[in-house]
Structures are given as C-alpha cells and as structure tokens.
Amino acid sequence: MDLPDPRRGPCRPLFLVVAASLLACGPRQASGPLFISPDSLTAVERHRNVLALENVPEGVQEYSWYRGAEDSAETMIISFRPPDSKVPGPLYSNLVTVTSKGYLSFRKCTLNDTGNYTVRVDTGNGTQRATGWLEVLELGPPPVISANASSTVENLDSVAAECHTNASHIEWYRNSVPISASQRIAISADGRTLVIRRVSRHDRTLQCVIQRYESFPDILQKSDTVSLTVAYGPEYVSLSTNLKGFDGALTAGIGSQVQLECSCDSDPSPKYHWLHNGSLLSSDANLNFFLDPASPTLACSSASSWLLHLGPLGGVPHLVTSLGCGHLCGILVYGLVKLYLHRRNRAT
Asked: Where is the Ig-like domain (predicted)?
C-alpha cells in the first residue's frame, strides 16, 4: 500500500482547490452600504475637490448626483452612464463634472457649495443612495510682506521683513527657496518677522508663505516678492596696459603711445578716475595718450558712486571708499608709469 508523500501534505480534492481559486480571483463585492468618503467632505474655496464613493456595488449602470438630501428631478446636478454618457440636470454648472468612477468633481469650490449632496447608484438589481454634508473652508487673503529696506550695502546693513497674516503656520523663502534660522538669519517665535544680518549680494528676494489648514498641506498662499538691491565693491580692481614692466614700474619711450585700462567688480557700476600730477585726466575706464618728457606719474582709481576720497599715502595717491558709518572698504590699485629718457648722441 502506497503512503502519501509527507512533503506534499494531505491530499485535497481537485474541485475544492479550483473553487477556492475562483473565489479568490472573482469580482470584489461591496462589504457594506454605499457612502460618500468622509475625507472628501471637507474642501477649501478656490481649490479642486472630489466627492469620492465607498462600497460601490458591482455592475453600476448609472450614477446620479443631487444637491440636497433628496434625489428629486428638480435637484439633480448631473447623471453619468458608463463609459461616457453624461446628462446635466437643473442645478448643473460648468464648475462640476463626474469622473469615470462616478465621483462628483468640483473644479473650483466656492463657499456657496457648502451643503448636502446625494448620490443615487442604479444597478440591474436595485438602487442605493448616500448623502453627505460638504463643508467648504474659507481660504482668506494671502499674506502681505513688508521690509525696512530694499537698498543695502553688503556686509554692513541688515534687513528686517515682516509677514502680515493671521495664519499660524508661516515659512520664509529667500530666492524662492525655503530658509530657516541660522547664524546670519533670525526668525521670531511666531514666524512673522525675519531678520538677515550682514546682507549679501546673494540675498536677492524675500517672500513669506502661509499654510492655513494642516489637513491641506499642499494648499499654500504666497505673498508678493520683495527684491533687495545690495551694493558691493569695488573689488578685483586690475590694470591692463600695452607697456612692459620692469622692477615694479611700467616703462615707455618718449613719443610712444600708452594704452591703459582699469577694471573692477562693483554694484552699482563703478566710476573711473585717471589722475595726472593730482589732476583729473579722464573718467573713462580706458586711457590712451602719448608720452612727453614732462609726464612723471599717473594713478588709476575706481570707486562706487556713493563716496570717493583721494589723498596722499606715503607720497603715492591712494583711494578709500567709505560705505557709511565710518566703515572703510579700501581698494588700493595703482599703475605707475615711469619715464626713462634715453638721450642719444650725448656730448662728452
């Protein structure tokens, strides 16, 4: 007598296995009465919302939506016969539609949409109804931002901005990127005030963003953008020329042409001053001239437009730019042109 293989377990009739497979793979039946999903019964004005259905029976032939607690012909919004037949009712508007699942979709909710909504689902075997109360929350006005300054000087000034709103959840954006408190940035406990110390040229825009309802984290309201103008420089001052250098000096022969160009990085744009024996030669970035025996010294200076002071420093002209409050951001760059006179046929 053959014994069953213990590794295969006890023998089961084949028809039981097939029946169990059919039950597992068969259509999913509704486990209770039809109802409107509670999560979809709260909306925010001026935003989309969908009244979703739960426990929808199989074989639905028509979905009908009504405004109110009754499914009367006078209160019908729209009916839908799958796959694509839609019939508007007396209370239809172009702000609502029905999805392919029979859900009622609001393109943009208004406060007047608050109230009862009833759905009737017709199948070949009967009809089910469900009613739910839709609450549309007021969005309220967007926040308003203000700042104590819009034109500042880098590494010197600070900027304080305030977000005017009654919302409790406030975020700050700099250059369209969310920011938090840091060594240079301070945010008040209620989130309404932002202070940036020692502003940088990279602090270009400020904006505050609010979230009124925790249950709707994706619904945000943004203030207008405050643009900051941050003055900096002059820096990276340089002198270029067609002359050759020797022992820290630039040399040129009598009657030769001298080409000098002074450049630097600054905002606002710098002003250039070419000096000859302490007198202003030109305010252009480029200087071209011919040397004669009476030209001893030239000096190139650059400064932003707010303040310029020129004076002697060890016998050589120098430049100091002051950005206010006695703070000195001096940039000293000079090109000295030394004339070497070559006398020929000198009498002995």
From this structure: 234-279
pTM over 0.70: no
Q: What CATH number does domain 144-227 carry, 3.20.10.10, 2.60.40.10, 2.60.34.10, 3.40.50.300?
A: 2.60.40.10
- Bridge partners of residue 54, in order along the sequence: 35
- Indicate the SS3 state at residue 30: coil
Q: What is the dihedral of CA 103, 109, 112, 117, to 10 degrees?
A: 10
CATH number of the domain at 35-137, please?
Answer: 2.60.40.10
Q: Distance between CA atoms of 318 and 342, rounded to whole angstroms?
A: 30
Whether residue 23 is predicted with pLDDT greater than 70 in this model: the reply is: no
Query: In which element (H, E) is residue 240 found?
Result: strand 229-241
Backbone angles phi, psi at 320, to 5 degrees: -130, 125
Measured CA to CA, the distance from residue 91 to residue 73 in angstroms comes to 10
Residue listed under structure tokens 């969310």: 178
Please name the residues in contact with 235: beta carbons below 8 A apart, sequence gap of 6 or more: 264, 265, 266, 331
Nearest to 195 by CA among 228, 161, 155, 153: 161
Structural contact between residues 335 and 248, judged by C-beta atoms closer than 8 angstroms = no
327 vs 321: CA distance, rounded Å: 9
What are 170's two structure tokens? 């406030």
Q: What superfamily does domain 233-339 belong to in CATH?
A: Immunoglobulins (2.60.40.10)
